[in-house]
Amino acid sequence: MDYRAQREGQRVDLFLAEQLPELSRSAVQKLLEQGFVTCGGKPVKKNMKTEVGQVFSVTLPELREVDLVAQDIPLDIVYEDEDLLVINKPKGMVVHPAAGHVDGTLVNALLHHCGDSLSGINGEKRPGIVHRIDMDTTGLLIVAKNDFAHQFLSEQLKDHSLSRTYECIVRGGFKEDSGTVNAPIGRHPTDRKRMAVTEKNSRDAVTHWEVIARYGSYTHLRCRLQTGRTHQIRVHMAYLNHPIAGDPVYGVKKPELGLRSQCLHARELTFVHPRSGERMTLACPLPEEFTAALKRLQSK
Fold first, then answer.
1. Any catalytic annotation for residue 134?
2. String of DSSP letters for 140-163
3. Which of 13, 83, 134, 136 is catalytic?
4. Beta strand 42-43 with 37-39: parallel, antiparallel or unpaired?
5. What is the DSSP string of 7-24?
6. For 89-146, how does the pLDDT look when each residue is reduced to its tens digit (9 = 90+)?
7. Burial of 157 (0-12, 13-18, 19+ CB in 10 A)
8. How far apart are CA 295 and CA 300, in angstroms?
9. What is the pLDDT of residues 81-93, one digit of tens each?
10. CATH of 2-58, one of 3.40.710.10, 3.60.15.10, 3.40.50.1970, 3.10.290.10
């Protein structure tokens, strides 16, 4: 694969990490160290700086299949029966194995907890996973134990009858008490690791929000997803010029309110149970880091 540099003086490992969003920067550096990146037929060093028009050729080595292993990782289970379980996911846990995260994921923990009792609709690497939340977003995630439940829940995601409500702290104040962001989301045109509001190669995205409390330069919000695009709430809040506090990707990069990452929590799920037909609402408390940030704001 060839990639042409558009900017002057950018470190080549950073440039290639932007072109290859499925790889971490450290993975790109390993490719450079092992001679898998060339420019003009010569191996490239990771600290080399780009020149406009340079073409970098990347050869990806054949990937070895990583067998999923069951790992005894504690799970905060909010609800469980023979068809599904709902997990309160902690900050820092990746949902399923991917480049740079081959174990220690929610899937590894689920395999230990459920054994073979997980749906297979999403393939071998994502058993039981109906929907995802970001690694550093906390809160509720629904998991299907069989294909019947998975299909039923997926249909609710498609017709928006599975309701997902989040809470977050965002920068700045709102004049209105509630509103809706209806703005399509797609891959960022220049930074492949980010999403953005864009008309190009995008999908419809709708987020409903309402103010819970105002704290001068910050606001505590409740957000309900009508659609579920990658990074949707984070992108939509940044689009409103109210990025989520602690979000280094779409907000400010300096630490704020004692947060380690985005202050975003999947607080509540409402869905129809696939077997009983009962409409269920499940909720979980705000994590400690979120409540500590609120206390900081309340004490000002």
1. yes
2. EEEEESSHHHHHHHHHHHHTT-SE
3. 134
4. antiparallel
5. SSS-BHHHHHHHH-TTS-
6. 999 998 887 766 778 889 999 988 988 788 776 666 678 889 989 999 999 999 999 9
7. middle
8. 9
9. 999 999 999 999 9
10. 3.10.290.10
